[in-house]
Amino acid sequence: MYQRILVPIDGSPAAARGLGEAIGLAGNQGAEILLLHVVNEWQIASGDIAAVNLEAGARRLREIGQDLLQEAESRVRGAGVSAKSALIEEIGVAVGACVVQRAREWPADLIVCGTHGRRGLARLLLGSDAEYIVRHTPVPVLLVRAEQRSGA
User: Which domain covers residue 84, as residue numbers?
Assistant: First the structure.
């Protein structure tokens, strides 16, 4: 049913749980996973990342993204699932838009993503990137929430 699963990752607990779900699905379906990390340099200018030197801040974001992709790819391959990864750099383009575009280009059969990532103020019910993906996706989406703390 699903042969190409796109998994955006950002280091958040929800993205990590989403990756786990994608690995399980891919293993059952014999699917391939494309891990995607978007470096959005707008974060530096908007204050999410304190950077005196914008180029150094951008370089650090790329390094963090590459590290996240390497860790995730090792996790996927360790589970016996085929994986590849991509790092996208965009300025002023929403992360959700980058995910939807890559889903069209690859082309993905399914997107598995966390509901809340590590960007800005979270929406009440759904993270803004996840909401964008759901509203604009060309393929089905599986949304995965971070584990809830007791009493939350």
Answer: 4-144
Cis preceding linkage at 107, omega within 30: yes
Answer yes or no: pTM beyond 0.90: no
Domain assignment present for residue 152? The answer is: no
Distance, in Å, from the CA atom of 50 to the CA atom of 71, rounded to the nearest integer, reads 25
Q: Please check whether residue 149 lies inside any domain of the structure.
A: no
Helices marked H in the chain — which ranges? 13-29, 42-46, 54-78, 95-105, 128-136
Task: Examine residue 69 and state whether it is found in any structural domain, yes or no.
Answer: yes
pLDDT digits (tens, 9 = 90+) for 30-75: 999 999 999 976 555 545 455 456 677 778 889 999 999 999 999 9
